[in-house]
Design a protein that fits this description.
Layout: H1 30-46, H2 55-60, H3 63-75, H4 82-104, H5 109-113, E1 123-130, E2 136-144, E3 147-152, E4 158-166, E5 169-177, E6 180-188, H6 193-196, H7 199-202, E7 210-215, E8 221-227, E9 232-235, E10 241-247, E11 253-256, E12 263-269, E13 273-276, E14 282-289, E15 294-298, E16 303-310, E17 316-318, E18 323-330, E19 333-338, E20 347-353, E21 359-363
Parallel strand pairs: 2-6, 2-8, 3-7, 3-9, 8-10, 9-11, 10-12, 11-13, 12-14, 13-15, 14-20, 15-21, 16-20, 17-21
Antiparallel strand pairs: 1-4, 4-7, 5-6, 16-19, 18-19
Helix pairs in contact: 1-4, 3-4
C-alpha cells in the first residue's frame, strides 16, 4: 500500500509546532513615572504649595532627558524583573534631578556652572539720525517677528526716528555720501550654538519686542521692508518714495500707499494683507501672492488695470461696477480695466501672480 500525503509518495514529515512565548523584555517605567511626577508638580504649583519654580533651568537641562532615555533602553535589555526595577529606579533619579532643577537651580553649583540664566532682558532704546546734508535715502528695515508701526515724521529734523525693543544686538548702520543716506535697521541673534539649543531662547525675540518707526516725509526714499510673523501697520501716505520693495511673511499687514510716481514689488507670503492704493500718481505695482488673502482698496478718482498672467487656486474678486474684462488668457487669467484708465493721469497697474490665497479689488466707497 502506498502512503498518501506526499507528492512523491513518501512519508509526510511531521510539522514542527511553533510555540509563541511571551517576551521577557523589561517594561519601561521612565515615561509613566515622569508623567505622574509632572502632573503632581504642576498641581502643587497651581495650588500654591510650591515656591516659585525655575522653568528656564528645567528647559535648559533638556539634553539630560536624552541621556535618561538612552540609559532606559539599555536597562530594558535585561530580563524581568531586574530590567523593570532598574528602569523604575532610573525614572525616580530623573525626577529628582529635574525637580531639583526647578526648585534649587540657584543653589546647585553644577547647574550654576552651566550658565542657566533666565531669559535675556528685553532692551528698549530710542534711535535717530539727523536730516542734515541728506537729500535722498536708501532704507532697509528688517522687522522680523516683532509688531511694527511705520509712518512719516511730523515737525522733525531727523531722517529716521525709532522706538525699538529687542533681544540680542541691535544693528543700526547709516552711511552718507553725496547726499545719499544708506540706512540699515536690523537685529542680530547670538552666534553661540548653545543659545540655539536652549528652548528658553526660542521664543524670546517675539516676547515684548516691538518697533515704532518714523521716516522723513520730504526725502525721496528707496524703501526695502523685510517682514516676518509680526503684524505691521505701514502708513506710508505722507512719504516720498522712489521705489518700494516688501518681502512679506505670515504676519498681518495693513498698508497705506503714498501718491507720487514710483513702482513697487510685493511678495506677500502667507499673512493677510490689506492695501489702500495711492490717491494720485501713475504706478505699476507687481504682486506675488501666497496663501494669505490680499485686499486692495481703490480710492475715488483713481483708475486701475488688473493683469493676471498666472492664476493660482485662490479666488479673485473684482468690483463688477468698476472693472471690465478686455483680455481672456484662460484658466482665470486675463486683463481687467476701469472705464477711464487709458486717459487717466492718476492710475495704477496691478500685475498679479496669484497663489492659493484670495485677491480682491474694491472701491473706497
Amino acid at each position: 500500500m502506498t502512503e498518501t500525503g506526499s507528492p512523491q509518495g513518501g512519508k509526510q514529515k511531521p510539522r514542527k509546532m511553533i510555540i509563541k512565548t511571551q517576551s521577557r523584555r523589561a517594561v519601561s517605567m521612565l515615561f509613566p513615572v515622569m508623567l505622574i511626577a509632572a502632573g503632581v508638580v504642576i498641581l502643587l504649583s497651581a495650588t500654591g504649595r510650591l515656591p516659585d519654580l525655575n522653568w528656564s533651568a528645567l528647559l535648559q537641562l533638556w539634553p539630560l532627558l536624552l541621556i535618561f532615555i538612552g540609559l532606559d533602553i539599555i536597562v530594558r535589555l535585561l530580563p524581568r524583573p531586574l530590567g523593570t526595577i532598574l528602569s523604575f529606579l532610573l525614572a525616580i533619579f530623573a525626577v529628582l534631578i529635574f525637580f531639583g532643577a526647578l526648585i534649587f537651580a540657584d543653589e546647585i553649583p553644577l547647574i550654576g556652572d552651566l550658565n542657566l540664566e533666565s531669559a535675556q532682558e528685553v532692551v528698549n532704546e530710542q534711535i535717530s539720525y539727523p536730516l542734515d546734508g541728506v537729500n535722498k535715502a536708501d532704507i532697509t528695515l528688517n522687522l522680523g517677528s516683532r509688531d511694527t508701526t511705520l509712518s512719516s515724521l511730523a515737525n522733525s529734523d531727523s531722517l529716521i526716528e525709532a522706538d525699538v525693543s529687542y533681544v540680542g544686538k541691535l544693528i543700526f548702520d547709516v552711511h552718507t555720501s553725496d547726499g545719499l543716506a544708506i540706512v540699515e535697521l536690523d537685529t542680530m541673534e547670538s552666534s553661540d550654538w548653545t543659545e540655539w539649543i536652549n528652548p528658553v531662547r526660542w521664543f524670546e525675540s517675539a516676547v515684548g519686542s516691538s518697533w515704532k518707526i518714523g521716516l522723513a516725509s520730504d526725502v525721496p526714499t528707496t524703501l526695502d521692508l523685510e517682514l516676518g510673523s509680526g503684524s505691521a501697520g505701514l502708513n506710508l501716505e505722507d512719504l516720498t518714495l522712489s521705489s518700494l520693495t516688501i518681502d512679506g511673511s505670515s504676519g498681518h499687514v495693513d498698508l497705506a500707499l503714498p501718491g507720487g510716481d514710483y513702482d513697487m514689488f510685493y511678495d506677500s507670503g502667507s499673512g493677510p494683507v490689506d492695501i489702500k492704493l495711492p490717491s494720485s500718481g501713475d504706478h505699476s505695482f507687481k504682486f506675488e501672492t501666497g496663501s494669505g488673502s490680499v485686499s486692495f482698496v481703490l480710492p475715488d478718482g483713481v483708475e486701475a488695470m488688473v493683469v493676471i498672467d498666472n492664476r493660482g487656486s485662490g479666488a479673485v474678486k473684482l468690483d463688477d461696477s468698476l472693472f471690465q474684462r478686455i483680455r481672456n488668457y484662460g484658466d482665470g487669467a486675463g486683463i481687467w480695466v476701469t472705464a477711464g484708465f487709458e486717459e487717466a493721469t492718476d492710475r495704477v497697474e496691478l500685475l498679479l501672480d496669484t497663489g492659493s490665497g484670495s485677491v480682491s479689488v474694491t472701491s473706497e466707497n
